Amino acid sequence: MTRSVQVFAKSGSAVEENSVEEASEGLSEVLLQERAAALAGDPLGWVREAFPWGEGELKAFAGPQDWQQEVLEGLRDGLLTPEEAIRLAVSSGHGIGKSALVSWIVLWAMTTCTDTKGVVTANTETQLKTKTWSELAKWHRLSRWRSWFKYTATAIFSSRAGHDKTWRIDMVPWSERNTEAFAGLHNQGKRILVVFDEASAIHDLIWEVTEGALTDANTQIIWAVFGNPTRNTGRFFECFHRFRHRWQHRRIDSRSVPITNKRQIKSWAEDHGTDSDFFRVRVRGEFPKTNADQFISSALVEEAARRSCDPDPAAPVVIGVDCARFGDDQSVILTRQGRRVVDIVRLRGKRGPEIARKVLEVSNSARADAIFVDGGGVGASTCDALHAMRVRHFEVAFGGKADNDGDNGYVNKRAEMWGRLRDWLERADIPDDPELLTDLKGPEYSYDSHMRVLLEKKSDMKKRGLSSPDVGDALAVTFAEPVASQQVRALLFDYADAAEDDDWISGG
After folding, report:
1. Of 13, 89, 398, 411, which residue is least crowded by CB atoms under 10 Å?
2. Sheet holding 149-151: strands in order across?
3. 466 touches 233 (CB < 8 A)
4. Residue 381 contacts residue 353 (beta carbons within 8 Å)
5. Helix H or strand E segment including 347
């Protein structure tokens, strides 16, 4: 998109009744307007001019810290590239001055562009009110342009008559059941600012609605997200992984920032270790290796994606099929041979017979030894079509009885298959496919009264803002039963007789 924004108009007084106060500080209203216009593309320069560094409350501070300067310089550089929205993502440990930087960006954005609009939200309403928004109050009070804006408990807006509705940034607690504030982010031809504080815990639906709303042409769009990296799934995590090419991303280690409590950091290192998830999140600004309830750890998945295994032609070729028809979900046909995932086919909006024909095509091409199909929902019609085409396959009931359903076993077949998948990943070679990696890391788990593993339902994952793990389920279903290759079965018994055996998928 091409940006052509209107910086603050130099004619007319923003707040004439306060011009004497500003003049007493050595800055006339005209000069304030001129400096605001000059700094529209220089947020770092604005921060250096806006506050009385080295005086009063800021006596001990000469200006922004190094890491804050780097982020502001990145924002400045993004303003010079007009093709798309500016996206800033900062992952950090505790106590680095993040809320101050958020406040500066909000105040710079409003001061240097007439009729700027935007929203600020955070992980919880308490965080938003008591930390993010209260920090903004401090820096608004210290700003040389403070008379231009009114600060309230829920918004900061222009003091100029007639601009209170069009020149404002609102504090908005998020809710996945009420996304209107994020869906209505339009400000054609001017500037939009969106800030997510403690973004790791903000629901993925809010991210998606926000992204869909930021589409105005000829508009300067800035989306800045900050937080401690508390979860290794979700959209904040993806800013640094799957979607890293879309974001300016920075990681700030609390140990490198002068203002942090080094004694507390030393205690955490002694108590937890510098490589613990506790220390990674709270100090190093790195995502945890494992969420508390995560069934398959991110470390295990990422190691499998980095691993390279030689092909094993003697290993059985197994196809897993996860079926869907409408909405965001997709049908997936995944081929695995031994320790390697060798192919992933994705289909959207296809009926059972169409999925079945593609399964047959993939099976013939791969010379599959077994085909496992999730028989629930659309999967039933896919299985019916495969039967009609005389394609041998195994229909799997994800909610059915697990082979190991006793104490310390699994509640159902799906949980058991994912358990086998997790064990397999320890020596596996999987593609660096963002969707597959996200799916494998996504599900959480719990235990029933018999200490059997209960894997999170797809519907519950969607409530957390995650997508249905279609690719992950297609891989998991390849572990429904043990499979022997055709060569091995031929050695064990007469292959012609085996072809008539309904239990043909079983093997040693």
Report:
1. 13
2. 149-151, 155-158, 168-171, 117-122, 191-197, 220-227, 86-92, 248-252
3. yes
4. yes
5. strand 340-347
Q: Computed from CA positions of residues 223, 226, 232, 234, in that sequence, does the dihedral angle turn out positive or negative?
A: negative
**Tokens in use for 83?**
């093709």
String of b and e for 79-99 (b: at least 16 CB within 10 Å)?
Answer: beeeeebbbbbbbbbbbbbbb
Of 354, 369, 7, 17, the closest CA to residue 191 belongs to: 7
Give me the residue label for tokens 């509640």. 411
Q: Where are the alpha helices (DSSP H) in 243-389?
A: 262-272, 277-279, 298-306, 352-366, 378-388
Say how many residues make up the chain. Answer: 508
State the amino acid at position 283 in one-letter form.
V
Q: Is 16's pLDDT higher than 80?
A: no
Q: Is the dihedral of CA 420, 356, 349, 238 positive or negative?
A: positive
Q: What is the 3-state secondary structure (H, E, C) of 247-266?
A: CEEEEECHHHCCCCCHHHHH
What pLDDT score was predicted for residue 25?
52
Give the predicted TM-score (pTM) of the model: 0.65
